[in-house]
Amino acid sequence: MSAIPNIRIGQGYDVHAFGDGDHVVIGGVRVAHDRGVLAHSDGDVVLHALCDAILGALALGDIGVHFPPSDPQWKGADSRAFLRHCHALAGERGWRLGNADITVVCERPKIGPHAGAMREVIAADLGVPADCVSVKATTSEKLGFTGRGEGIAAQAVCLLVAV
User: Fold this and answer.
1) Is the separation of the CB atoms in 51 and 12 below 8 Å?
2) Predicted model pTM
3) Using CA atoms, how far apart are residues 54 and 160, in angstroms rounded to an integer?
4) Quick check: 133 and 126 in contact, CB under 8 A?
5) How many CB atoms are located within 10 Å of the residue 83 CB?
6) With 70 as the cut, is the pLDDT of residue 1 above it?
7) Are 53 and 13 within 8 A, CB to CB?
8) Measured at the alpha carbon of residue 87, what is the angle toward residues 86 and 92, in degrees to the nearest 5?
9) In angstroms, how far is CA 24 from the centroid of its own chain?
10) How far apart, in whole angstroms, are the C-alpha atoms of residue 68 and residue 123?
11) What pLDDT, in 10s, does the model give residues 118-138?
12) How many CB atoms lie within 10 A of CB 130?
């Protein structure tokens, strides 16, 4: 029998449609926008994707298992609480974040001006230096729902390291 590796990799993806509103929360940062998102919680696609990456690396299901949208206690919830919970689950099992790499897919709002603040927020919630967290963005070249400005998506990968 082979030894259990001292690293784990997880990946996550999330998407939300735009709806009425005047801002979106992305990576724990409130970003002014002419739309909001349709979501049960605050609809933070970055943190939801990162939670799914961490939970996937831990083989603990997905964010919906831990924070079901059918449960009214999560209505309007701050997704940073979700991230801190996932981080705690990792720590309880002997893992810590090595790094996370997150890509936001949208035409608007522009992510670049806010990426540094997002990295700082995420790093603080995970107890790691900001250089362990990457937040970047791309467009879908006007193709698909993100290209038509109907919504926003994010994908995340993370590396967990045994403590």
Assistant:
1) yes
2) 0.96
3) 8
4) yes
5) 24
6) no
7) no
8) 95
9) 13
10) 25
11) 999 999 999 999 999 999 999
12) 15
